Amino acid sequence: MERQSLFKNLELEQALQFAGLVGYQPGTVVSRTLAQNKAANVTLFAFAAQEEISSHTSSGDALVVALDGEASVTIGGKTQVVKAGDAIVMPAGIPHAVLANTPFKMLLVVMFPLD
Fold first, then answer.
1. What is the helix (H) or strand (E) element at residue 45, kind and residue range?
2. pTM, whole model, 2 decimals?
3. pLDDT tens digits, residue range 26-76?
4. What pLDDT does 8 receive?
5. Domain 29-111 fold
6. Are the C-beta atoms of 92 and 58 separated by less than 8 Å?
7. Which residues have CB under 8 Å from 44's CB, separation 6+?
């Protein structure tokens, strides 16, 4: 019996340009879920300039990998600018937010504790 992939919304066994898998739309944040289960969530996001995900907390550690553009990431009240090629970890339980300074694309990987 063939095992079903844990990834969705992706062509398997193909080289992919990640930034091209999600497109910009004026005035909004677009997302594309690539995998989701009790251990992890993998999502691509495209933010129009000045769009944001407001401050919130998560029960999992979140890794942001910037794919295009620039954003201000605030973690525990401290803001840092991330640009394409940068990555930053937003630890579980600490308030965090993302504000697109320019059109911005990111890959978000959230890892949840299983205990």
1. strand 40-47
2. 0.92
3. 999 999 999 999 999 999 999 999 999 999 999 999 999 999 999 999 999
4. 87
5. Jelly Rolls (2.60.120)
6. yes
7. 18, 21, 22, 31, 32, 34, 67, 105, 106, 107, 108
Paired sense of beta strands 96-100 and 40-47, if any: unpaired
CB distance 73 to 80 below 8 Å: yes
Enumerate helices (H) and strands (E) in the chain, giving the number of each: 0, 9
List the 29-36 sheet strands across, edge first.
29-36, 40-47, 104-111, 61-68, 87-90
User: Among positive and negative, which fits the CA dihedral 92, 111, 85, 7?
Assistant: negative
b or e along 68-107 (b: 16 or more beta carbons within 10 Å of the residue's beta carbon)?
bbbbebbbeeeeeebeeebebebebeeebbbbbeebbbbb
Looking at residue 3, what DSSP letter applies?
A: P
Query: What are the pLDDT digits (tens) for 17-27?
Result: 989 999 999 99
At 85-108, the pLDDT tens digits run 999 999 999 999 999 999 999 999
